[in-house]
């Protein structure tokens, strides 16, 4: 039996972890024993607890309850707590997701104890080291033993950084194995899309008309923390709603919620709050989010996960960033990068609303990535 310790801490990681836990439960419970550790990076019920209940993720065996803080303070507290648990549990491998501070902390603690790291959602790059996530993902990839890239671009990014194809077992941090295997978030979208139809009444409860609204999310630190950028984004949202009589639904990440009044230009803040077409709501559960994504006519976001879900549900997407790790979405014409530029946002909206010739090739795998990952864990970790 292979013992893995899965490290999660932030909202998208609970969602990604659900896919692997589900695959283990379905087909690998005789070969993989999974324990879960929650760092406590996200802790509000609608940022954490709700996902465990709704997605039937097993209750974490550990919760470090680290909470919020500066990058150094938060990451250091996680490393300290993780090291103690790693020494106690002695897992055959540590599974980490994506690029948050929880990912980095686990990568540092596990690599120093020579525990193999399995990085799911490896290889992605924005080529912008001002993003905390870019630093986290680069550092994590370079101490990992098994790396699973969700896209072809991710696979070639790793080759670009010196990862060699054709390494042979046994795999180690010095002799890693990397795969292009598809995206566990696509697995989830297929699985939970059916459940969202029966499991969400959010649209009805809020009087939101199916197919007649734009869904928006904003949480990236450079957008929320820089008053000029936040103001430009909201000014554009305000204009789009008024010029097109379009309802806007915006589930607020707590980071954004806390900074809205402080960082928005006063006139724009007043206009947004007084605009009946704009519905600001607290962050929602995953099934409610899927219902919103499926019901929207267009999605505007700076989220990594939401960009892809827009594609999974065949919605055009405006990306409030200067660059994206999910380059395929832009190259295939499904999404437009607009940064936080007012004019580009308006132009992007008009272009995508008028466009009709979208295509949706299978860029993110076949919906069975979690099964593939578990198979490779079984084949390769037992040798360590
Ligand atoms: C983190 C990740 C980011 C990811 C996002 C997913 C890092 C560096 N960033 O960003 O990559 O896209 O999660 O949502 O790891 N807060 C609450 N309640 C909570 C959680 C957060 O109020 O339950 C507030 C706190 O004021 C906190 C702020 O949000 O300081 C930011 O939280 P933090 O986890 O540091 O970063 P995120 O912006 O959530
Ligand atoms: N999400 C959610 N409720 C919300 C906003 C987002 O369930 O109110 C989900 C969304 O569907 C996606 C994931 O959270 O699966 C994306 O996480 P987030 O935007 O926080 O982080 P990122 O993907 O940018 O790291």
Q: What is the rounded Rg? A: 20 Å
For the termini, the CA-CA separation is 12 Å
Low-confidence sequence ranges = none
Overall shape: globular
Structure characterization notes:
This protein has 384 residues and is of the alpha/beta class. The chain has two domains: 199 residues, Glycogen Phosphorylase B (Rossmann fold), CATH 3.40.50.2000; 165 residues, Rossmann fold, CATH 3.40.50.2000. 48% of the residues lie in helices and 15% in strands. The protein has 17 helices and 13 strands. The chain has a seven-stranded parallel beta sheet, with helices on both faces. It has a six-stranded parallel beta sheet with strand order 10-9-8-11-12-13, sandwiched between helices. α2 links the parallel β2 and β3. α3 packs across α4. The longest helix has 19 residues. It is globular. Uridine-diphosphate-N-acetylglucosamine (UD1) binds next to α1, α5 and α11. The site of uridine-diphosphate-N-acetylglucosamine (UD1) has 20 residues, from α1, α5 and α11.
Summary, kept brief:
By secondary structure, the protein is α/β, with parallel strands linked by helices. The chain has helices spanning 11-28, 49-55, 71-89, 101-112, 132-141, 152-160, 184-199, 202-205, 221-224, 227-244, 254-263, 266-274, 286-295, 304-312, 327-331, 342-354, 369-381; strands spanning 2-8, 32-38, 62-63, 93-97, 117-120, 146-149, 177-180, 213-217, 247-252, 278-282, 298-301, 317-319, 335-337. The protein is 48% helix and 15% strand.
């Amino acid at each position: 039996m292979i013992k893995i310790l899965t490290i999660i801490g932030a909202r998208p990681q609970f969602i990604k972890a659900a896919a692997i836990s589900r695959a283990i439960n379905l087909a690998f419970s005789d070969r993989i024993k999974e324990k879960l550790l929650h760092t406590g990076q996200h802790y509000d019920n609608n940022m954490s607890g709700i996902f465990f209940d709704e997605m039937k993720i097993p209750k974490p065996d550990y919760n470090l309850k680290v909470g919020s803080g500066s990058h150094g303070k938060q990451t250091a507290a996680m490393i300290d707590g993780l090291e103690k648990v790693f020494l106690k549990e002695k897992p055959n491998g540590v599974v980490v997701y994506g690029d948050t501070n929880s990912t980095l902390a686990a990568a540092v603690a596990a690599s120093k104890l020579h525990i193999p790291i399995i990085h799911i959602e490896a290889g992605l790059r924005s080529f912008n080291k001002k993003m905390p996530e870019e630093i986290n993902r680069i550092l994590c990839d370079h101490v990992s033993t098994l790396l699973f890239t969700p896209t072809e671009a991710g696979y070639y990014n790793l080759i670009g950084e010196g990862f060699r194809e054709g390494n042979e077992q046994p795999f180690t941090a010095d002799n890693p194995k990397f795969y292009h295997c598809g995206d566990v978030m696509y697995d989830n979208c297929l699985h939970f899309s059916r459940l969202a139809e029966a499991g969400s009444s959010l649209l009805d409860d809020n009087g939101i008309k199916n197919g007649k609204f734009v869904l928006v999310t904003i949480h990236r630190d450079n957008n929320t923390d820089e008053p000029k950028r936040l103001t430009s984004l909201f000014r554009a949202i305000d204009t789009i709603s008024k010029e097109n009589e379009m309802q806007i639904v915006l589930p607020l990440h707590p980071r954004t919620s806390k900074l809205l009044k402080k960082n928005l230009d006063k006139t724009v803040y007043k206009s947004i709050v007084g605009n009946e077409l704009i519905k600001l709501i607290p962050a929602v559960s995953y099934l409610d989010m899927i219902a919103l994504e499926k019901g929207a006519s267009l999605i505007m976001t700076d989220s990594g996960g939401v960009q892809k879900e827009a594609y999974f549900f065949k919605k055009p997407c405006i990306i409030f960033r200067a660059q994206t790790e999910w380059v395929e979405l832009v190259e295939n014409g499904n999404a437009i990068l607009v940064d936080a530029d007012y004019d580009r946002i308006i132009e992007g909206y008009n272009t995508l609303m008028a466009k009709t010739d979208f295509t949706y090739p299978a860029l993110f795998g076949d919906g069975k990535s979690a099964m593939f990952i578990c198979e490779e864990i079984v084949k390769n970790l037992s040798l360590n």
